[in-house]
Amino acid sequence: MTPSIVQRVEETHASIVDIGALIDSQPLGTFQKWIMVMIGCSVIMDGFDVQTMGFVAPAIVRAWGIGPAELGPIFGAGLLGMLAGSIIFGALADRVGRRPVLVGATIFYGLCMLGTTQVQSVPEFLVLRFLTGFGIGGVMGNAVALVSEYSPLKHRAALMTWVSCGFTGGAIAGGLLCATLLPSMGWRSVFLVGGILPLVVAVVMARYLPESLQLLVAKGRSPERIAQWLGRIAPNVQLGPGTRFVVRGQPQAKASVRELFRHGRSTTTLLLWGINFANLLDLFFLSNWLPMLSLRVGHAVSTAVLIGTSLQVGGTAGALLLGPLMDRFGFYRVLALSFLVATFSVSSVGLPDLSTGLRYAVVLISGICIVGGQPAINALTATHYPTSLRATGVGWSLGIGRAGSIIGPVLAGQLIRLQWSNTALFVAAAVPALASCLMVVFLSRASGKSRIVPVEC
User: Fold this and answer.
1) Could you give all domains of the chain from N- to C-terminal order, each with its CATH number?
2) Separation between Cα atoms, residue 229 and residue 239, nearest integer Å
3) Which DSSP category does 408 fall into?
4) What are the tens digits of pLDDT across the range 159-199?
5) Burial class (CB in 10 A: 0-12, 13-18, 19+), 140
């Protein structure tokens, strides 16, 4: 073990252990893989919830005899709740810990989903959707932060991206579950299963999920637990009772939004917010309107649904692909190229003379770059903040991004009402992708590096 990782102090027979350097020096072990699986299961419910609402909406309209327009505020309430949850739970996690907030948020939204099975009116549904979104909003930022802090440097981008892509996996699982349950058991059964699953995940996390070692060191807490968990990551390192744990290169900061703009972080924070906003605006525009707009150019309903599904398939492929590429070539190069490609692929989706095969292809590429790019953005955001501010930074970036996820579908609806053509709509949708590309380039220059992990985790 190198002196920089474990430093022996002869006079006191004690050791000083650099937590980040020690984790980076070890291979990815079973203990860490198990952590990634648990966190990934909690992230899956984010995508599950979003996709489920889209599938159960027609069943609710039929069961309650209401117009589709009445569901608009319900959709918006869930997204608004996610926005608030991302911001509030992010700051809370940096204060009290990743583990209690992640477990608590998972329990909360699980109970809210169970409560949704009992709603009898649109106002009740609206309240439960806001509360469910609020709980789900507390998951992603904390999940990304915790994964970053248990990942060796050489695998960090890939692991953060892969865990984040649980959103897409959850969306696919939600569609499969709805297809199975809706015809035989009705829409309430979907929320029943959707409430039970996160509670099971929460119980497992409460029993087995460790706290961030870096955060415990920063807060001066539980050296015995640090030694216990670190021993499972690096069993070859001797950790005696006199061992002192440190996190080098980590400036301490109070968990508040003000700190995101101090010590030269203003430009970085604003650019990360802008990238999240633009990409989630694009992502939700495409997710919500692709099937409908495919019908406008003459595709059959089944084909329109498959075109929409190919976006999510591309997203899963993109998340799996972009992570290892970022570990090898750096965040900025990979993301800038990805969003540049998305600019051309998204603008091509609405071309009227495009063959069905080519339309599938450009939608798939758009999914790789836009949907697959969002987990990569989450991973990039986590690397820009120290441990004591990481969940706050990711939470606020996602919160600002959630505003884009609300605006995107609404704006598209207004442009359709103004009778914009498909070609014009998708050219407009390519603008946020181009903006994301330019902001990534500016962020790279602001950071002054082309291949980076700006803050050691």
Assistant:
1) 1-250 (1.20.1250.20), 251-447 (1.20.1250.20)
2) 11
3) H
4) 887 887 777 778 777 777 777 787 888 888 888 988 898 99
5) buried
